[in-house]
Amino acid sequence: MKNIKRIARFILAFALILVSGSGFLSSVSAAEVSNSLTIENTGKTPHTFELYQIFKGDLGGENNQLSNITWGNGVVDSHGFGEASAKADSLTPENVKSFANDLVSGEKLKDATQSKKVAAGSSYTFDNLDAGYYLVKDTDTSQDKEEGAYTLYILKVVGTVTQKTKLDMPSVEKKVKDINDSVDKEHGDWRNTADHDIGDNIPFQLEGTLPGNYDEYESYKYVFHDTQSEGLTFNNDAVVKVDGAKLETGYEVKITDNGFTVTFDDLKEIEGITKNSKITVEYTAKLNENAVIGSTGNPNEVHLEYSNDPNNIGDGTSTTPKDKVIVFTYKLVVNKVDAEKEALTGAGFKLEKKMQDGSYKLVKEYSAEKDKTTFEFKGLDDGQYRLTEIDTPEGYNTIEPIEFKIESTLDDDELTLINLNGNAIEGEVELDLTPNIGEGSLTTDIVNKQGPELPETGGMGTKVIYTLGILLLGGGLIYLAVDRKRSVNN
């Protein structure tokens, strides 16, 4: 009788307690005509649940007490556990997790009584069950995948029972900042898209959360995997914070071939972290010469690797889905032509960007080259620019510097470039910029005109005088010849 009362207290104590594990224990009542256990999969992945009978006996009484306890059909080797009734009598909320782990890791289980694959958000009923305590666990290694998490143990006295799995996993989000440095002095808020100049150091942020059952883990591995496209170069300046407070130790930053990782081998070693904590990593990356111009952009992704099994201290991990931001950049294409729209050689240009303080920053400069008539200025942000002709084709007039602005529209939800245009600043020379969103280009023809033909020294007036002089000289010579002949004859 004393044994029965202690088991009753044990059962009631676990009625609402969740403990760590890759499954959960449940008791099924023999008083029911058909005992059953319905499992609701609340996770984000399919789960294959395996059912094992650990204890069997007679269930009855006002509090559904289990008596005459023996080892169940799911236990192949009870050696080391002792008598079933004594083992059941010894279980407490503090040691039941260890008992379940010993059953699984100690290879004490037979083939599952039943097993079933249950889709995410669905349920399944194990029915026609004999009275007893049942262990339900996920198939080994089945949750070592994206968004995977193993179920936890729960102990209940049941007849016909519906039990939700208690599953949770962390999440991660990535953000980027934007700036129009022709207008703004500081970067804006965190967002999903931005456009920048090649050479800019771009701020990025990673923000990770923790699972609701974080307290159930004895150790917890937590790794940020940041992957950058070829157009971005990590500046190795990561700052790690927990709930806004900077961390100096407890993690390792490692540069990889295409990004970097921030690894916490055991997050539990850092005091003060709870299931509600947020872990952030802030850093900058330079937009380099390999940046992709146009609507494809330069993506930057992150995913978390995290411990997925609160039963074990092992290395079992899963990953979150990737979260992505995109950085866009553009180009200006200048075609040098004459008044007839024919390509014109001998020109050179420089492009400068106007900064917020009124100064101008050189983007690129082209000197005149043989046969060069097209000039590309790559890696431009939105903002105000000045195009200056520094070499002029021989015989043509130099154009005045042209001030213009580039404007873009980004869809922060869809991560796309939806509009790109350029216009001359009011009051300046007319400029026709043709946009191509896919290529991220603004193209224009810069026309040079020849100078007017001015009168030359020794022009038409002089030529007339020369002609008249020659005629007069010729007439004079003829007159002298005739006059001399007359004199001889006389």
From TrEMBL:
Keyword Transmembrane helix appears in the UniProt entry: yes
Keyword annotations of the record: Membrane, Signal, Transmembrane, Transmembrane helix
DNA repair recorded as keyword: no
InterPro entries in the record: Fim_isopep_form_D2_dom, GramPos_pilinBB, Ig-like_fold, SpaA_PFL_dom_1
Domain SpaA-like prealbumin fold: 332-409
Family annotation (Gene3D superfamilies): 2.60.40.740, Immunoglobulins
Signal peptide location: 1-30
TM ranges: 464-482
Domain Gram-positive pilin backbone subunit 2 Cna-B-like: 198-310
NCBIfam families membership: LPXTG_anchor (TIGR01167), RrgB_K2N_iso_D2 (TIGR04226)
UniProt name for this protein: LPXTG-motif cell wall anchor domain-containing protein/fimbrial isopeptide formation D2 domain-containing protein
Organism annotation: Alkalibacterium gilvum
